[in-house]
Design a protein that fits this description.
Elements lengths: L2 H11 L3 H6 L1 H4 L2 H9 L7 E5 L5 H6 L5 E6 L2 H13 L5 E5 L12 E7 L8 H11 E13 L4 H14 L9 H10 L4 E11 L1 H7 L4 H13 L2 H6 L8 E10 L1
Parallel strand pairs: 1-2, 1-4, 2-3, 4-5
Antiparallel strand pairs: 5-7, 6-7
Helix pairs in contact: 8-11
Length: 252
């Protein structure tokens, strides 16, 4: 992984950890309820949360599994996870720091690997998926949740552009088709897939990343100039709030 990108991700997120803990977008959602359903028979499982952020997926999983390892590049995020796990008396969460592309764990060490709202920051997604496959036990599962690209070029370029303006550490939101190809290419098969949408309130969306005022203006300018197709697909409101596609899948 490039040291420059790693430093960028750390600088973007370490100071914002508390904002992510409090963020409604991250703290709740149909995907977390679905995650709890998908983990309902896994009381003995050792689970790894890659790119755990402020820990919401780890907190959802912890009461349902034996052990959770919360893993993130940002020390600031991990400090928030450790403190909040204590506050919630979730004693089976351990924190570990590093990039998704180099997991410091032995082969076949986890029954389940999960990741939520993180994969779009991974510098080398193929390397990260190879590592996830390596640390999973035979027959283990990978559960992934993220913003998804609509796939269509015009819609895709608009989404990637505003994401990159808001957060320079953004790499890419992948489409359902791209995820299927990448996961299959790593020898895993998707057996559950849910497409959904996520409403993003504009002012809190840019505030979470401390996006500079001139860049916020650029995003608003792009929103004003888009075609009707883009405006309709993303349901862009007068205040800049919009709706993004999401993807959640389980691969074995």
């Amino acid at each position: 992984m490039s040291n420059h990108h790693e430093a960028l991700v750390k600088s973007q997120f370490s100071g914002q950890a508390a904002a992510y803990l409090q963020s409604n977008v991250h703290a709740q959602g149909a995907d977390l309820r679905r995650l709890a359903e998908w983990l309902s028979d896994d009381a003995q499982a050792h689970l790894l949360d890659v790119g755990c952020g402020a820990g919401h997926a780890s907190f959802t999983a912890a009461p349902l599994v034996a052990e959770v390892t919360a893993y993130d590049l940002s020390e600031g995020m991990l400090a928030v996870v450790e403190q909040e796990a204590k506050n919630r008396q979730l004693m089976n969460i351990t924190c570990s720091q590093g990039p998704a592309e180099v997991l410091p764990f032995a082969d076949n060490s986890f029954d389940i690997v999960i990741s939520r709202y993180s994969a779009h920051h991974w510098h080398d997604i193929q390397a990260a998926l190879m590592e996830i496959r390596r640390v999973l036990k035979p027959g283990g599962r990978f559960i992934m949740m993220d913003i998804a690209s609509p796939g269509k070029p015009m819609l895709d370029i608009w989404l990637q552009t505003i994401e990159m303006l808001r957060d320079p550490s953004h790499i890419r939101n992948y489409s359902q088709g791209e995820w299927l190809a990448m996961v299959n290419g790593r020898g895993m098969m998707i057996d559950k897939l849910v497409g959904d949408t996520l409403h993003l309130e504009f002012s809190s969306w840019v505030a979470r990343m401390k996006t500079p005022e001139n860049i916020v203006g650029a995003i608003r300018y792009l929103q004003d100039k888009v075609s009707d197709e883009v405006r309709t697909h993303f349901a862009i409101a007068d205040d800049g709030s919009f709706v993004s596609d999401t993807i959640m899948f389980q691969a074995r």
